[in-house]
Structure formats: structure tokens, C-alpha cells
Amino acid sequence: MRLAVLTSGGDAPGMNACIRAVVRAADVNDFEVLAIRRGYQGVFDDDIAPLTRGDIIDTVHMGGTTLGTARCADMYEDDGPARAVEVLSRHGVDALIAIGGDGTFRGCEAIERAGGPPTIGVPGTIDNDIAGTETTIGFDTAVNTALDAIDRLRDTARSHGIIHIVRVMGRHCGALALAAAIAGGTEAVVLPEDGHPAEGLVEQITDAINHGKQGIIVVVSEGARDSIDGIAADLTLQTGRSHRITVLGHIQRGGRPSAVDRLLGATMGVEAVRAARQGAHGVFIGMQAGSLVRVPYAVAAGTQPLDERLTGVRKLLS
Ligand code: F6P
User: Is the CB of residue 107 less than 8 Å from the CB of residue 40?
Assistant: First the structure.
């Protein structure tokens, strides 16, 4: 059997652990592996080459993705999937393992619809925004990176007694912001799922100040409906405290993967190879109630609800 593997969309810490697991599991089964570089772009550019055990030596601890990644416009053109299938057939690909987010899975679906090989998705994104899986490769590391920044900001916020507003990634999903805010004990968090929360926010911050809080930290998810500048200006106007804004940006995408993300990458990679061997297709490997399961791509198109345990304590703790 000849497998191809690619990483697509935003990179996420732990992707390399997953690539390594795919190569090692394939090796045990005497399968060949082809690396497709820079996501689907590598299919269109025919940037495809054998990937062997020698290529994945000492990569498990590395952030980013050694295969490179891209957001590929060609895939969305009318003839994109058919062109991709032609290249994959020419390389004799029996199954494609694609590590990425919901856009990556849409690419997999399009390839299968166009008559291409079976595909198996693996959820890799710091956003944890894929419905059908409780977590994604890269999320845990990104939460810890945001948390490290929040802890540092806490020191200076307390010293100066001013309001720090921290923008956290996550696209349209507040999972990353919510987890970082609760773990960081921030005074408030503003999520895309909230609607327009500015009024309640001022009361929450005023309450914290009245309870003797010196430094105030507010996490704002990048998908929040209110602008971060508007939120900051309003807080300063209503509380009389000055503010600073920190945008964490792509720092959250890099860095050494946490143990959680390496283990997730490892187990999901092995499971993806097992699924390919068993002839599965049209599914991604998800985590549900602590177990790895195969989830149809259509499920990923739905909305990922926020973790109920965290939303349950949010009002109390952040
Ligand atoms: O999906 C991962 C992510 O980092 C999102 O949190 C963010 O909205 C987006 O990618 C940024 O994309 P880019 O790197 O293309 O600017």
C-alpha cells in the first residue's frame, strides 16, 4: 500500500509527532509513504517525494510542520479536485492522510468526490474548532503559550494597576481564549459566541476593582464581535483606568509541542494508518469521551460547541 501524507492550513505544534507516527506505523505494515509538501499546493506543484524513517528522525519535539503547509487556492477552483486526483493517481497513491483543520477536510471530501483515493483526516489546529472531536493537535500547546503570556502580563498589570487586554487567536471559535482565560484567572473573557457583551464586561471589571484587584486582565478572542479597541476604550472611559493592548498573534502557533499534543499526534497518526489499512474513507480521527473514533467529514462542518465544563465555571472564575 502506498500512503501519502500532507499538512494543510495553519501549522500546529504536534503535527510533526503525527507525521512521525504515520511513517513509523506505515513502516511496520510495509507500506510506502509519500510526503506532499506545503499542503494541497504540493499536489498541484507535484512536490511529492518518498518519506522514510530517516526523514523523521529527531522531529517529535519540533513545532511547525516539517512538510510545510499552505492555504491553497487551486483546490477551490472548479477543476481543482480533478487535477489533484490526476496527480495522486500518477503517483499511485492508495490513501491520503491529511492533517489540518476543517478546510483540509473539505479538500479531502472534494478529492474523494472527484474519484480520488480514500482519505483519512487528522485534526490539527490550535483553534480546537472542529465539530466531532473534543480536541485537536496543537490546542494544548497554544493554550499554554497564551497562558505564559497572561502570567507575565499579570505581573506588570498588578504593578501598575492598569487594564491589560490580550487578544488570543481562534478564528470564529472561542475555545482557545476561554481555556487560556480560565487557566490564567483573568478578570473577564470576550468570545465570538457571546454576541455583544460590552455592558456586562464593564460591570464585571468594576466589581473586580471594588474587590481590591489592582491588575486587570481581559482576554478577547480574535473572533469576538466587538472590536478590541472599542472594548479597551470603553473600559478606560467607564473605570478611569488606562489600558494596554497585547496581540499575541502567531506566537501561539509556534513552539515546542506539549506532551499532550505529542501524544495526540502519535496516537491519531497510528490510528489514521490503521484506518487506511482497513479501507476507511471519508472520515477523520476524532477524540470523543477520551477515545479515538472515526468521524464523517460532514460532522466537522457543524459548529463546535464550547467545552461545557469551562462554560459552566466561566461566570464564576473569569
Ligand atoms: O487556524 C489557525 C489560525 O492561527 C487562526 O487562529 C487564525 O485566525 C488564523 O490561523 C491565522 O491565519 P494566517 O496565519 O493565515 O494569518
Answer: yes
Q: Among 7, 127, 250, 252, name the best residue to mutate to test ligand 1's pocket (greatest count of ligand atoms within 8 A of Cβ).
A: 127
Same domain, 277 and 227: no
314, part of any domain: no
Burial letters for 157-174: b for 16+ Cβ neighbours within 10 Å, e otherwise? beeeebbbbbbbbbbebb
What is the bridge-based pairing of β-strands 119-123 and 48-50?
unpaired
pTM of this prediction exceeds 0.90:
yes
At 295-310, the pLDDT tens digits run 999 999 999 999 999 9
Residue 91 lies in a domain: yes
Please give all residues whose beta carbon lies within 6 A of any atom in ligand 1, as ranges.
Answer: 10, 101, 125-127, 169-171, 222, 253
- Any catalytic annotation for residue 127? yes
Q: For residue 58, what is its C-alpha cell?
A: 529527531
pLDDT tens by residue, 160-179: 999 999 999 999 999 999 99
**Owning domain of residue 12:** 2-138+257-303
The 3-class SS string of 183-247 reads HHCCCEEECHHHCCCHHHHHHHHHHHHHCCCCCEEEEEECCCCCCHHHHHHHHHHHHCCCEEEEE
Q: Are residues 133 and 177 in the same domain?
A: no
